[in-house]
Amino acid sequence: MTRWGFLPTSSSWLRNSLQTALRRLDTMMAEWDLRGLRLGFPLGGPTSSDISADTGLPLGAVPAVVTNLAIRLAPSHGKTVAPETKSDARTYLNTLMTYAAFPNEYQWQSTLPLGAGNKPWRWLQTFAAKPQAKDLPTPVVGMTFDGGPQ
Predict the structure, then answer these.
(1) Number of independent structural domains in the chain
(2) Are the C-beta atoms of residues 112 and 126 closer than 8 Å to each other?
(3) Is residue 149 part of a domain?
(4) Under DSSP, is residue 93 helix (H, G, I), strand (E, B) or coil?
(5) Domain containing 48 — which CATH number?
(6) Residue 70: predicted pLDDT
(7) Is residue 32 in some structural domain?
(8) Rounded distance, CA 73 to CA 79, Å?
(9) Can you give the residue range of the structural domain that contains 33?
(10) Could you read off the pLDDT of 7-16 as tens digits, one per residue?
(11) How far is CA 40 from CA 13, 15, 32, 56, 116, in A?
């Protein structure tokens, strides 16, 4: 918090400030979840947030979360946000949304029928081929876009 000029003056101020920041973080992550960006952040009720709990965020998402949270916290502390911080926050969030927009590739199970458009007498194959593990990319754990939790 000292990076943005938020210096605590007392322990009660710090405790209240941290609880406010935690509520705003929960709100921001819930908004991102509604937009379809699910990062593995534990979304709970307003009383279930714990300041010492692990967020579960992938490391690549941390800069986007930190800079966007700083933008949300600055006005309540009487600070203006530097244009570089705004630009960085926008860039980080756009990069995160772009990265998460590409769906993970996967193969169908071999017990799945190929469907009405597939004519088995053309290829002599009525079910999907067996999955090949070597063809699948390594998925990013905990990050989905409009697909719900993994």
Answers:
(1) 1
(2) no
(3) no
(4) helix
(5) 1.10.3230.20
(6) 93
(7) yes
(8) 9
(9) 2-101
(10) 555 566 677 7
(11) 30, 26, 11, 6, 37
* DSSP, residue by residue, 96-142: HHHHHHSPPP----TTSB--TT--HHHHS--BPPPP-GGGSPPPPTT
Is 140 buried (19+), middle (13-18) or exposed (0-12) by CB count in 10 A?
middle
Phi/psi region, residue 62 (left: phi>0; alpha: psi -120 to 50; beta: rest), is alpha
Structure tokens belonging to residue 10: 């007392």
Please check whether residue 141 is in contact with residue 104, taking contact to mean a CB–CB distance below 8 angstroms.
no
Q: Which amino acid is at 134?
A: K
The Cα 145–Cα 138 span in angstroms is 16
What is the structure's pLDDT at 132?
66
Q: Does some domain include residue 119?
A: no
Tell me, what's the pLDDT at 129? 67
Q: Is 34 strand, coil or helix?
A: helix
Spatial distance between the Cα atoms of 123 and 26, rounded to a whole number of angstroms? 52
- 144 forms beta bridges with 38
Average pLDDT by stretches of 10, the chain with 150 residues:
50 74 90 87 68 82 93 89 94 89 70 65 65 58 52
- What does pTM read for this prediction? 0.62
Is there a domain that residue 58 lies in?
yes
